[in-house]
């Protein structure tokens, strides 16, 4: 299972794709190759909006036999609501308790800044209400834009190694699209899928100090994802 991420040839990426598929994450085929933009000429001087995406559920995976013991083992570390979220498998409750933020918006902001600088694009407003992933919904959220950047997480959270269940890692897959607001055409599209295994952590490192390990792990994905998406989309 997940321990194969330590082998060569992008096994961690394959592991994350499997997790995303099991989670039923939205979007087109997770294994689809990136679609780089054919020409950047239309970007020059355009008004660019960054959509505010809906977030997927936070994935908080622990070994099945931990669910009854976790509250007792880590009672002083994670708090009552977080303990309940582990028992019930409700990662969203844990994320809310710890204030864990979906990294997709930070990735989108960084990619949008890069686009505006390289193509002299101006900023167009978008609704602050998170929008669904359909092209129509994204376009409707930014009526003043010529181009819309839609960046969203398909999976974010943490998981464990099946053969070493005391070792946990933070995970994230980010999906980005550049959409022409007038034609509703997707001009470029790609996913940021980490190619290197992240640091392994003990559970108390993940959840201690209000989820400090989770937050640091997600933050570590942001800058590499901006670079990877820009490269894959040829922006």
- Uncertain segments are 1-9
- The count of DSSP E runs of length 2 or more, i.e. the number of strands, is 6
How many structural domains? 1
Judging from the principal axes of the Cα atoms, what is the shape? elongated
Largest sheet: 6 strands, mixed
CATH architecture: 3-Layer(aba) Sandwich
The computed structural class is alpha/beta
Rg calc = 19 Å
CATH fold descriptor: Rossmann fold
What top-tier CATH class fits best? Alpha Beta
Note down, in words, how this protein is organized.
The protein is built from seven helices and six strands, in the order H-E-E-H-H-H-H-E-H-E-E-E-H. The model is unreliable at about 1-10 (pLDDT under 50). The protein is about 40% helix and about 20% strand. It is α/β, with parallel strands linked by helices and about 240 residues long. Strands 1, 2, 3, 4, 5 and 6 form a six-stranded mixed beta sheet that branches. A hairpin with a 7-residue loop joins strand 4 and strand 5 (about 170-180). It has helices at about 10-25, 70-75, 75-90, 90-100, 105-120, 135-140, 205-235, and strands at about 45-50, 60, 120-125, 145-160, 170-180, 185-190. It has one domain: 3-Layer(aba) Sandwich (Rossmann fold), CATH 3.40.50.
